């Protein structure tokens, strides 16, 4: 008999699906939040029969249960922990721990991909094209590779996961993976996903008007309240405001903070780790504690939201040889313009500031971080230029 304790997100449920395909009626699967895992482990150690094989996937236990699982293993109990988070690497010190962040080919792993390899290697499951394709979609979504690879099928799989119950998702996937040569979405799911994508787009657009900016430690964070679509929201807000090092997404009801970044110079698992959490370099999270509440909620409540750059401009565009005009909430104007091929300068209210920048991007980051500016619309830019021309003629 097997028992699998896994996370309640797509990657965690992907593990449960594989386990049910491999073991059928011989496995019990329980999905847990990060905080709920340790209660389940304690219950297992106190109540389950010793010959039940315990698999823990996509989650790691606390220090107390770590010791108890080692004692369970030493006394002949069967346990295996599979994880892919850097914060869990110390479990590799145990015979029953297997934590792999990157595979031998240099690809980031997911719990689903690790369990699949484990099951196939130990001849507990036969590899098929449909299962392999499903596992790869889960892996790419969980590691954010889907965004780099433009693999929107992975994003759609996660969207479908949240549109139906876990039981329904499990049932659909198990039946499909057993019966089909290749993974696919049926026509009803495609229509459902199309409607959901439109909903997500509207949601992200609304949240884009609510984000505030704060320097937290060495990084500039964008902070927004949201209970849904954290990955999609973090990704799009990161692209909309690239001067921000990461996006902090506050789920007050769930008492969680999610961290997302699109940048390679930031590892948000380290950010989350500072607050007792963990995760991946691009996506991580922690609990909303008194410390994080004070930092991300109390100290930002009074801040005004960021303003988006003007869209569909023809004249006031970025990196223009004529200069690009920005504005802040104090109605101060900033002209960012090239001095030569390697130097960019800024005029604040028509007075040149001392700093010289080596690129447009460097200068714009300075403006947005220090002056909270946005690119103004064409009409304001044209009026600005006409006033300058008028003064020159006068």
Number of helices: 14
Shape: elongated
Quaternary state of the chains: single chain
How many strand elements?
16
Binned, the helix content reads: 40-55%
Tell me the domain tally.
3
Low-confidence stretches: none
Could you please describe the fold and organization of this structure?
Helix content is 43%, strand content 20%. With 394 residues, it is of the alpha/beta class. The protein folds into three domains: 2-185, Rossmann fold (3-Layer(aba) Sandwich); 211-298, Diaminopimelate Epimerase, Chain A, domain 1; 324-393, no CATH class. The strands form three sheets. A six-stranded mixed β-sheet has the order 6-7-8-9-11-10. The protein has a five-stranded parallel β-sheet with strand order 2-1-3-4-5, sandwiched between helices. Helix 1 (10-23) packs parallel to helix 4 (111-121). The longest helix has 21 residues, at 187-207. The protein is elongated and about 90 Å long.
Summarize the SSE layout with pairings.
Layout: E1 2-7, H1 10-23, E2 27-32, H2 37-47, E3 53-57, H3 63-74, E4 79-83, E5 97-99, H4 111-121, H5 129-143, H6 145-149, H7 152-163, H8 166-179, H9 187-207, E6 212-216, E7 219-225, H10 230-240, E8 246-251, E9 256-260, H11 268-274, E10 278-279, E11 283-287, H12 290-298, E12 324-327, E13 333-340, E14 343-348, E15 351-352, H13 360-370, E16 374-375, H14 378-393
Parallel strand pairs: 1-2, 1-3, 3-4, 4-5, 7-8
Antiparallel strand pairs: 6-7, 8-9, 9-11, 10-11, 12-13, 12-16, 13-14, 14-15
């Amino acid at each position: 008999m097997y028992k699998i304790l896994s996370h309640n997100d797509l990657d965690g449920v992907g593990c449960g699906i594989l386990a049910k395909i491999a073991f059928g009626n011989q496995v019990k699967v329980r999905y847990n939040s990060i905080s709920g895992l340790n209660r389940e482990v304690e219950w297992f150690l106190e109540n389950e029969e010793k010959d039940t094989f315990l698999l823990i996937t996509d989650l790691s236990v606390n220090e107390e249960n770590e010791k108890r699982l080692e004692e369970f293993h030493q006394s002949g109990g069967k346990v295996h922990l599979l994880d892919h988070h850097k914060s869990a690497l110390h479990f590799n010190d145990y015979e029953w721990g297997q934590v792999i962040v990157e595979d031998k080919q240099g690809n980031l792993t997911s719990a689903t991909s690790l369990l699949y390899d484990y099951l196939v290697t130990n001849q507990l499951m036969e590899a098929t094209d449909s299962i392999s394709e499903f596992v790869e979609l889960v892996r790419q979504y969980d590691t954010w590779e889907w965004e780099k690879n433009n693999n929107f099928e992975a994003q759609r799989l996660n969207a479908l996961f949240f549109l139906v119950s876990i039981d329904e998702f499990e049932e659909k996937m198990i039946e499909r993976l057993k019966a089909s040569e290749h993974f696919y979405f049926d026509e009803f799911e495609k229509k459902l996903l199309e409607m959901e994508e439109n909903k997500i787009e509207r949601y992200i657009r609304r949240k884009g008007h609510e984000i505030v900016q704060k320097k937290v430690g060495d990084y500039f964070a964008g902070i927004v309240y949201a209970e849904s679509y954290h990955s999609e929201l973090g990704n799009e807000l990161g692209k909309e405001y690239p001067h921000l090092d990461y996006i902090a997404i506050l789920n007050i009801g769930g008492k969680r903070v999610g961290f997302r970044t699109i940048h390679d110079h930031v590892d948000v698992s380290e950010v989350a780790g500072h607050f007792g959490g963990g995760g991946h370099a691009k996506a991580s999270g922690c609990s909303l504690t008194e410390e994080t509440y004070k930092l991300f909620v109390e100290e930002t409540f009074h801040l005004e939201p960021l303003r988006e750059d003007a869209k569909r401009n023809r004249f006031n565009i970025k990196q223009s040889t004529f200069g690009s005009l920005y504005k802040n909430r104090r109605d101060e104007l900033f002209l960012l313009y090239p001095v030569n091929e390697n130097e960019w300068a800024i005029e604040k209210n028509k007075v040149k500031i001392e700093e010289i920048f080596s690129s447009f991007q460097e200068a714009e980051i300075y403006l947005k971080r220090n002056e909270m500016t946005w690119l103004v619309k064409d009409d304001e830019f044209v009026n600005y230029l006409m006033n300058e021309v008028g003064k020159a003629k006068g």
